[in-house]
Automatic annotation (TrEMBL):
Keywords: Antibiotic biosynthesis, Dioxygenase, Oxidoreductase
Keyword Oxidoreductase in annotation: yes
Ranges of residues in domain TauD/TfdA-like: 34-316
InterPro entries tied to this protein: AlphaKG_dependent_hydroxylases, TauD-like_sf, TauD/TfdA-like
Alphabetized GO MF terms: dioxygenase activity
Domain of life of the source: Bacteria
Cofactor: Fe(2+)
Protein name: Alpha-ketoglutarate-dependent taurine dioxygenase
GO biological process: antibiotic biosynthetic process
Pfam families for the chain: TauD (PF02668)
Presence of keyword Oxidoreductase: yes
Species whose genome carries this gene: Paenibacillus phyllosphaerae
Length: 328
C-alpha cells in the first residue's frame, strides 16, 4: 500500500513482488536527494520487483530527470541499432517511440533483439495524454514461468532469427538505424554484433541476426523470457497494414519479420499463446505528469497503449550488457 503524508519521508510500498513498487511524495521532496539517500534501498527493490514508479516528486524539467538518472549511472547510453523512430530531446534523453497514436506497441524488453541492451531504463511523463497512452509493464520472470514449457524448450533449441529490410519507402533508413552513413562502419558494426549483412542497393540493406530467446539475469540468476519474436512477427501489425504489405511484398522482404533461428516459420498459434500470456500478466497504470518510472530492462518489459491528445514521455537508458561474449 502506498501513502502520501505531507511533510514526511516519501513512503514505499512493500508488498512482495508488487509491480511496480510505488514511491510517493507530497510534491515537496527533492527526487535527487531522496535517491541519493535511499540508493541501496531503491536498487534492492529494482532487483526484487523489477520496476519502481516515483510519483508526486517535483520533476519539472528534462534536466531534473537526467540528473536523477545520474544517481544510478555515470553515463546514459545512445540508442543504437534502432528499430523504431525516436528523437533526441537533449544529450542522450530521447522521446519514446514515435509511432502513430492510434497504434498499440506490444510488450518488449528494450533492444532484446540486439547483441546488447541497457540494464536500466527510465521513463518520465512530461505531458500526459488526454486519453490512454499508458506504458504497461510485465515481469519477464512471470512470463517465462507461465509459458508452456514445450514452447520454451522449442525456442531454447531453435533460438530466434530477426530479419530486417532497412531503407526504401517503408522502414527506417539504414543510416538512422546505425547512426552513420559510412558503409564501412556499418559493415564493421554488423560483423562485431553478429549481424549478417546484405546490401540491396545504395539505399536498402537486409540484416539477419540469430539471438537467444531466453536469458538468465546476471545478478539474480532467474530465467527470463527475453526476445521480441511476437513483436517482430508480421502478425503483430494491424490487420489492414499487414494485408497491404503482404499484397506486394514476400515475407522475407517485409521491413521486419522473425523466424526460428534455423529460418523456419514460427507457428502463429505459438505467437498467439505468447501474446496471451503477456496479456494475462500485464500491469497498467495511468501516467501523471512528473512521474518517473525506473525499470530493470531485463526483468521488466514495457509496451505502449494508443492515445488521444498531446503526449510526451521521454526515455533514458544506461548500463549496457550482453551475454554473447562480444566486445562493445
Amino acid at each position: 500500500m502506498t501513502m502520501n503524508v505531507s511533510g514526511m519521508e516519501p513512503t514505499l510500498s512493500n508488498a512482495a513482488r508488487t509491480l511496480p513498487v510505488i514511491i510517493s511524495s507530497d510534491n515537496t521532496e527533492d527526487i535527487i536527494a531522496y535517491a541519493q539517500r535511499n540508493r541501496s534501498k531503491i536498487e534492492s527493490h529494482l532487483l526484487h520487483e523489477g520496476g519502481i514508479l516515483f510519483r508526486g516528486f517535483p520533476v519539472d524539467s528534462i534536466e531534473k530527470f537526467e540528473e536523477f538518472t545520474a544517481v544510478f549511472s555515470e553515463k546514459l547510453e545512445a540508442y543504437n541499432e534502432r528499430s523504431t523512430p525516436r528523437s533526441e530531446v537533449q544529450g542522450k534523453v530521447y522521446t519514446s517511440t514515435e509511432y502513430p497514436s492510434d497504434q498499440h506497441i506490444p510488450m518488449h524488453n528494450e533492444n532484446s533483439y540486439s547483441h546488447q541492451w541497457p540494464r536500466l531504463i527510465w521513463f518520465h511523463c512530461v505531458t500526459n495524454a488526454e486519453v490512454g497512452g499508458e506504458t504497461p509493464i510485465a515481469d519477464s520472470r512471470v512470463i517465462y514461468n507461465h509459458l508452456d514449457p514445450a514452447i520454451i524448450a522449442r525456442f531454447r533449441e531453435k533460438k530466434v532469427m530477426y530479419v530486417r529490410n532497412l531503407g526504401g519507402k517503408i522502414d527506417l533508413p539504414w543510416q538512422t538505424v546505425f547512426q552513420s552513413d559510412d558503409k564501412a562502419y556499418v559493415e564493421a558494426y554488423c560483423a562485431k554484433a553478429g549481424l549478417q549483412l546484405e546490401w540491396l542497393g545504395e539505399d536498402r540493406v537486409r540484416t539477419k541476426a540469430v539471438r537467444e530467446a531466453v536469458a538468465r539475469h546476471p545478478e539474480t540468476g532467474e530465467m527470463l523470457w527475453f526476445n521480441q519474436a511476437h513483436l517482430f512477427h508480421y502478425t503483430s501489425l494491424p490487420e489492414d497494414i499487414r494485408d497491404f504489405m503482404l499484397s506486394y511484398l514476400k515475407e522475407e522482404n517485409l521491413p521486419r519479420n522473425v523466424f526460428y533461428g534455423d529460418g523456419s516459420p514460427i507457428e502463429e498459434s505459438i505467437l498467439d499463446e505468447i501474446r496471451k500470456v503477456y496479456d494475462q500478466h500485464t500491469v497498467k497504470l495511468p501516467w501523471q505528469e512528473g512521474d518517473v518510472m525506473m525499470l530493470d530492462n531485463m526483468l521488466i518489459g514495457h509496451a505502449r497503449e494508443p492515445y488521444k491528445g498531446k503526449r510526451k514521455i521521454v526515455v533514458a537508458m544506461a548500463n549496457v550488457y550482453n551475454n554473447y561474449g562480444l566486445d562493445r
